[in-house]
Design brief:
Radius of gyration: 20 Å
CATH class of the largest domain: Alpha Beta
CATH superfamily of the largest domain: Enolase-like C-terminal domain
CATH topology of the largest domain: TIM Barrel
Number of helices: 13
Strand content: 15-25%
Order of helices and strands: EEEHHHHEEHEHEHEHEHEHHEHEEEHE
Number of domains: 2
Largest sheet: 7 strands, parallel
Structural class: alpha/beta
Number of strands: 15
CATH architecture of the largest domain: Alpha-Beta Barrel
Strand order of the largest sheet: 5-6-7-8-9-10-11
Shape: globular
């Protein structure tokens, strides 16, 4: 494989409904799309999934644009590798910036799968063509509003409901939700909003039979999470601190959590996700695919990687219509009444890119 050019396209997509976490409230997404092209003119598409500000991680839209354009793309363009799995190694001299790297790397996987005429999910080694879907619901203006939203998603068939929590939005909220929905698979995602000083409050959540408590403590911590996990019965799911297979290994050895959320962007792309998935699978640690409010391109990549054997829990891979009035792919991602998505048998990501929609939404472009 030799990449002849890399094109970056920033688009602006307004959300159907605001999405709030402990970081703040998001009304629209600035998304960087990546289009790679080889010497024969074949193309592949990826997405840089960082947020508009450095809240979830150090990366953000403007920093990722500069890094991808000035540093990473020149490392890849014109270089030869045996396969898309080798793209990561071309960018090793740049430390960090895994989300920017992932956008380039996943686009190369899409290109390679299309060139080979195979679905990306099969090319990645997926075994479960049909995946189970969960949904993530942000902090709302009222508990009643949250309960109404959960009711809609439960009727839509989603297998797992994740609600965002924070110190001002936790015990009473979960108590009300659990009373309204005693049988749903329910989890709370704290996005690092707590410390060990909150251990009594976090212990109190054990009574609600949560599927998991995601990233309650600091974004870069695995030591205090081990202390917390030893004192609560609710399984802790790690998110932000697991950026590599080695991070996953260390966290598992420490007992920092019992579940791991794998995000393509956070770990650096498909090759790195596969390594983390392998560590989880070999250690009997359930894993699932987390979401970053992706457009259809990023969502298609999430569907593909979620078919790997180690992804054993419903992920944040939901329907396009939950987020976008009009997605940038066709057909739009849909979830069955049973709460599942079946991966396409078409080559590559399995969806057609809507170039007119991208053009109407684009803010800036550059080709390297």
């Amino acid at each position: 494989m030799q990449i002849r050019s890399i094109e970056l396209i920033e688009i602006n997509l307004p959300l159907v409904h605001f999405f709030e976490t402990s970081f703040g409230r998001t009304y629209e997404r600035r998304i960087i799309l990546v289009r790679v092209e080889d010497a024969d003119g074949a193309e592949g598409w990826g997405e840089i999934t960082c947020g508009e500000v450095p809240g979830y991680s150090e990366e953000w839209t403007d920093s990722a644009w500069a890094t991808a354009e000035k540093v990473l793309a020149p490392m890849v363009v014109g270089k030869s590798v045996d396969s898309a799995a080798g793209i990561w190694d071309l960018m090793l001299r740049a430390r960090g910036h895994r989300m920017a790297k992932s956008g380039i790397e996943t686009a190369c996987w899409d290109l390679e799968a299309k060139t080979l005429g195979v679905p990306l999910w099969r090319h990645l080694g997926g075994v479960n063509r049909t995946i189970e879907c969960g949904v993530s619901i942000g902090i709302q203006d009222s508990i009643e509003q949250l309960i109404d939203k959960i009711a809609v998603e439960a009727v839509a068939g989603y297998r797992r409901i994740k609600i965002k929590i924070a110190p001002h939005w936790d015990y009473e909220v979960i108590k009300r939700v659990r009373a309204a929905f005693p049988d749903i698979l329910l989890m709370g995602d704290a996005n690092s909003a707590y410390t060990l000083a909150d251990i009594d409050k976090l212990k109190s959540l054990d009574e609600f039979d949560l599927m998991m408590l995601e990233q309650p403590l600091a974004f870069d911590d695995i030591v205090d999470h081990a202390k917390l996990q030893a004192q609560i019965k609710t399984p802790i799911c790690l998110d932000e601190p697991v950026r590599s297979a080695d991070d996953a290994r260390k966290a598992i050895e420490l007992g920092s959590g019992k579940i791991i959320n794998i995000k393509n962007g956070r770990v650096g792309g498909h090759a790195q996700s596969k390594l983390v998935e392998k560590i989880c699978r070999e250690n009997n640690i359930p894993a699932w695919c987390g979401g970053m409010l992706e457009s259809g391109i990023g969502r298609a990549h999430n569907i593909a990687i979620s078919t790997l054997a180690g992804y054993t829990m419903p992920g944040d891979v939901s329907a396009s219509k939950r987020y976008w009035h009009e997605d940038i792919i066709e057909p739009a991602v849909e979830v069955s009444p049973e709460g599942t998505i079946t991966a396409s048998e078409k080559p590559g990501i399995g969806f057609e890119v809507k170039r007119d929609r991208i053009e109407r939404s684009s803010i800036r472009k550059v080709r390297i």
